[in-house]
Amino acid sequence: MVGKGRTVLVVEDDRLTLGLLAEILTQAGFVVGAADTVAQARVMWDRMDPDAVVLDVDLGPGANGFDLADAFLAQTPSLGVLFLSTLPDARFAGRNPDSLPVGVGYIRKDQISEPKVLVEALDAVL
User: Fold this and answer.
1) Which of 6, 22, 34, 54 is the most buried (most CB within 10 A)?
2) In a domain? residue 115
């Protein structure tokens, strides 16, 4: 199994997508924590101490996925980070791709229809 028991926190405000992501990653051998709000993500972060996070860029009003990644990376610089969005590129989310931390990944939500793409993208940031 690809995940080999590594822990992943998935943060996605759409519950259907969150459930799909969690199922794909669990089947790939990851131990998955799921959060659908920023507040819940912070609680889960403290409980899990994950190896990686999969973050939706747009999490509704307030903090976004980039903000969460910055906070999490400040605590754990070796954290694997994979951004997920409907937008084709981080630039469309108001973030210069060059300003993203080195080693983070970015995939579009339409790519998760192929579970292998999600698993490989996550594995690449770990």
Assistant:
1) 54
2) yes
Q: Look at residue 106 and tell me whether its pLDDT is greater than 60.
A: yes
pTM: 0.90
Task: Give me the number of domains the chain comprises.
Answer: 1
107 in any annotated domain: yes
41 touches 11 (CB < 8 A) = yes
Q: Which domain holds residue 100?
A: 30-125
Sheet holding 52-56, edge to edge: 31-35, 7-11, 52-56, 80-85, 105-108
Record the tokens describing residue 56, joined without a space: 């939706």
**Per residue, what are the HEC states of the chain?**
CCCCCCEEEEECCCHHHHHHHHHHHHHCCCEEEEECCHHHHHHHHHHHCCCEEEEECCCCCCCCHHHHHHHHHHHCCCCEEEEEECCCCHHHHCCCHHHCCCCCEEEEHHHHHCHHHHHHHHHHHC
pLDDT value, residue 124: 93
In a domain, 17, yes or no: no
